[in-house]
Design a protein that fits this description.
With 321 residues, the chain is an alpha+beta fold. It has eleven helices and twelve strands.
Length: 321
């Protein structure tokens, strides 16, 4: 099967590739053409997933199709952008019909759930990797960034932490658990749900935001650096799922919540006078700390003692001691 037949059979014919609002021209030409509404800015983000680094190989291609798009769309949610299109650069060691069919089904299911249209991409031969470029739009001047947090703001997250990272022993076949726990943990790992609507709700309210992908403490560090502030995280306020605690125990559940990554929930700073409005609207917001004058990130226990761990999250190029 040739490159263009592969694209035509498995991707161009998918429901998510049939255009949509803002897509003037999709798959089939040298470029896609996207229309940005007047008064809005284009938000663009690229994510690459590499076999053996970001996901186990082999794995279920249907689940991989869901995960590979969801983690990219999460970046748009973090900016408060409306997602509307994406491209896929797919590198495959071999062309396998069953694998492509399953991957395309998972990709299409997540694309329709997120409201994004596949508008192009590329296919090549090589070690398995997937690169998604996602496009969204946001009213000019209203994008959420990492650089606006100010002393006095509250530090918040948009949901429970650590559940996806806690699933890794199950993903890798290292442990077993009760079916209900397995189902919940694996769903968070393979099918994260980008918090698109929460990102839209935070426009004009949050002072800074990003999504949690590398670990809570590591990603707090990005906001602290960009905003020129210090962030203090309170360990006892971490929102943990009952399934995660039952599977790992409290201490290990806290550890993966702090540094495990792959949560894809929003991390944001918000002035106290704006928090009640968001909570009254029913958003699953948890206050986990505060923004202070200074620099860096500190984890404290129930009496305020500094218990910051040396390893705060995932880094691709960390040197081995």
């Amino acid at each position: 099967m040739g490159e263009f037949e592969l694209i035509r059979n498995y991707f161009a014919a998918a429901p998510c590739a049939q255009g949509g609002e803002g897509v003037a021209l999709g798959i089939g030409d040298d470029c896609a053409l996207l229309a940005v509404p007047p008064g809005e800015q284009l938000a663009v983000s690229t994510d690459t997933l590499v076999a053996g680094v970001h996901f186990p190989d082999p794995c279920d291609p249907f689940l991989l199709g869901q995960r590979s798009l969801a983690v990219a769309v999460s970046d748009l949610a973090a900016m408060g952008a409306n997602p509307y299109a994406f491209t896929l650069a797919l590198t495959l060691p071999t062309v396998t019909t069953d694998w492509l069919q399953a991957y395309a089904r998972g990709l299409n299911q997540m694309a329709q759930a997120c409201g994004v249209a596949l508008v192009g991409g590329d296919t090549t031969r090589g070690p398995l990797s997937l690169t998604m470029t996602v496009f969204g739009h946001v009213p000019s001047g209203q994008a959420l960034t990492r650089s606006g947090a100010r002393p006095g703001d509250l530090l918040c997250v948009g949901g429970e932490l650590g559940t996806a990272a806690g699933a890794l022993p199950l993903v890798l076949g290292q442990r077993s658990a009760e079916p209900a726990i397995v189902e919940l943990l694996l769903a968070h790992y393979w099918s994260p749900r980008p918090q698109i609507d929460l990102g839209l709700a935070l426009r004009g309210k949050a002072s800074a935001a990003m999504d949690i992908s590398d670990g809570l403490l590591a990603d707090c560090g990005h906001i602290a650096l960009a905003s020129g502030v210090a962030l203090q995280v309170e360990r006892d306020r971490l929102p943990l799922s009952n399934a995660l605690v039952a599977f790992l125990g409290r201490a290990d559940a806290e550890q993966v919540a702090l540094s495990g990554g792959d949560d894809y929930v929003l991390l944001f700073a918000v002035p106290p006078n704006r928090l009640s409005t968001l909570q009254a609207a029913g958003w699953p917001i948890h206050v986990i700390g505060s923004v202070l004058a200074g620099q860096g990130v500190t984890l404290v226990d129930s009496v305020g003692h500094d218990i910051t761990p040396p390893v705060r999250g995932y880094q691709h190029f960390r040197e081995t001691p």
